[in-house]
């Protein structure tokens, strides 16, 4: 195992895991904010914002995350602006996440009966107020499972950022495997790290579903 002890490997992997978690949080929070805006545009009755949102969603859903990552990392550099691997990874994952969350949430909003829109309209609420006070609270109960389910994909998607040199869990595991000549053990621990993160998210989803009575 070269000069590395088991604790050295675990300690370095925990550092990589922290960066994976940080990138996942940034991508999910940023993607949630952008995705909410895109979702509002997507359900708009005006054709221009609706078409812009549809094009945005189809663009990011129809191209590989790796390609989006390359375009951000190398495209910005070609424009003469220096960008770190961390920033490129955060931007690419945020855009990718926002497109999927926007479509997930649009489906949840569309599942609310039209009668809810009509009833809230009779209260003299404008469309944004209808969405904020009547539709979204109901859609939230439906959105818990698919949203948390997609967050698991975001966590696993961070592994792609190792291609541009961002030192998250997968990249750290690769460097340790080369240094220790113990790839099976190292990548086994990497897999365990991803499993613990994703399983924790699954448990959180079950808790939220019970709390919001979404399972019923």
Automatic annotation (TrEMBL):
It is a multi-pass membrane protein. This is Amino acid ABC transporter permease. Residues 17-205 form the ABC transmembrane type-1 domain. It comes from the Bacteria. Pfam families: BPD_transp_1. It is found in: Cell inner membrane; Cell membrane. NCBIfam families: HEQRo_perm_3TM. Its main location: membrane. SUPFAM superfamilies: MetI-like. It comes from Pseudomonas violetae. Belongs to the binding-protein-dependent transport system permease family. HisMQ subfamily. The chain crosses the membrane at residues 20-43, 55-77, 83-102, 142-164, 184-203. InterPro entries: AA_ABC_transptr_permease_3TM (IPR010065), ArtM/GltK/GlnP/TcyL/YhdX-like (IPR043429), MetI-like (IPR000515), MetI-like_sf (IPR035906). Keywords: Amino-acid transport, Cell membrane, Membrane, Transmembrane, Transmembrane helix, Transport.
């Amino acid at each position: 195992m070269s000069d590395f002890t088991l604790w050295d490997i675990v300690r370095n992997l925990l550092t990589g895991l922290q960066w994976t978690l940080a990138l996942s949080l940034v991508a999910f929070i940023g993607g949630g904010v952008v995705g909410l805006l895109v979702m509002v545009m997507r359900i708009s009755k005006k054709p221009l914002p609706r078409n812009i949102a549809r094009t945005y969603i189809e663009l990011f859903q129809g191209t590989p995350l790796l390609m989006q990552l390359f375009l951000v990392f190398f495209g910005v550099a070609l424009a003469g602006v220096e960008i770190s691997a961390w920033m490129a990874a955060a931007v690419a994952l945020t855009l990718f996440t926002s497109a999927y969350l926007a479509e997930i949430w649009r489906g949840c909003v569309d599942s609310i009966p039209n009668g809810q829109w009509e009833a809230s309209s009779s209260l003299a609420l404008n469309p944004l107020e209808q969405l904020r006070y009547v539709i979204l609270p109901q859609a939230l109960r439906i959105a818990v499972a698919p949203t948390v389910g997609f967050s698991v994909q975001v966590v696993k998607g961070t592994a792609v950022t190792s291609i541009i040199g961002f030192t998250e869990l997968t990249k750290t595991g690769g460097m340790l495997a080369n240094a220790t000549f113990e790839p099976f053990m190292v990548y086994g621990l990497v897999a365990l790290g991803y499993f613990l993160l994703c399983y924790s998210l699954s448990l959180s989803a079950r808790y939220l579903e019970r709390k919001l009575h979404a399972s019923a």
